[in-house]
Amino acid sequence: NAGVTQTPKFRILKIGQSMTLQCTQDMNHNYMYWYRQDPGMGLKLIYYSVGAGITDKGEVPNGYNVSRSTTEDFPLRLELAAPSQTSVYFCASSYSTGQILAKNIQYFGAGTRLSVL
Amino acid sequence: GNSVTQMEGPVTLSEEAFLTINCTYTATGYPSLFWYVQYPGEGLQLLLKATKADDKGSNKGFEATYRKETTSFHLEKGSVQVSDSAVYFCAGGETSGSRLTFGEGTQLTVNP
Known about the structure:
The structure holds 2 protein chains of 2 kinds.
Chain A: E1 4-7, E2 10-13, E3 19-25, E4 31-37, E5 43-51, E6 54-57, E7 64-66, E8 76-78, E9 87-94, H1 100-104, E10 107-108, E11 112-116
Parallel strand pairs in A: 2-11
Antiparallel strand pairs in A: 1-3, 3-8, 4-5, 4-9, 5-6, 7-8, 9-10, 9-11
Chain B: E1 3-6, E2 11-14, E3 19-21, E4 23-26, E5 33-38, E6 44-50, E7 56-59, E8 62-65, E9 75-77, E10 86-93, E11 100-102, E12 106-111
Parallel strand pairs in B: 2-12
Antiparallel strand pairs in B: 1-4, 3-9, 5-6, 5-10, 7-8, 8-9, 10-11, 10-12
């Protein structure tokens, strides 16, 4: 029953530090996503991946990098942390079949709360 | 591009009150529409969905009807409970199926 697992749950960074947010899913989903959720705002897509070895930018990719070497894992890298990256980060996945609807039903992790001070 | 607009929150109701959260969308074509719910400290989870005009999605007493003529997908529940307190997100799916566009979210608090 693991689903989508994110680590860590909380992290405080100093300006200029780097870190990697981990995301893994055990549902054999092809599609994976990274979102950020700012207070009082909706979710903004950072990056997404349609399968191992394939990634693409979302709405707000600047300051982030991703890789997808396996179906299960989709880590998000912050190279030079800035206060503007203080947010809650959610990883999600969805199953890709020939049906478009299946791709839109996304399963979310519990989130990583990041503060950059 | 696609966009989803939700009513501004937060919304505070008493238990057993009627709930409506408005959602309208702008899209190329006719996307699938969704309501996701986020309980405190958790990630989002799918509440209900509709894939074409006049479809009604329903789950846990919540309903929403896909209205093409008004481009709306309003969420309703006849009698809310304290356990319904959460943030509700309306979302539209791209016709290619690879991405969702989320609304701003509406915080619902239900008091006993």
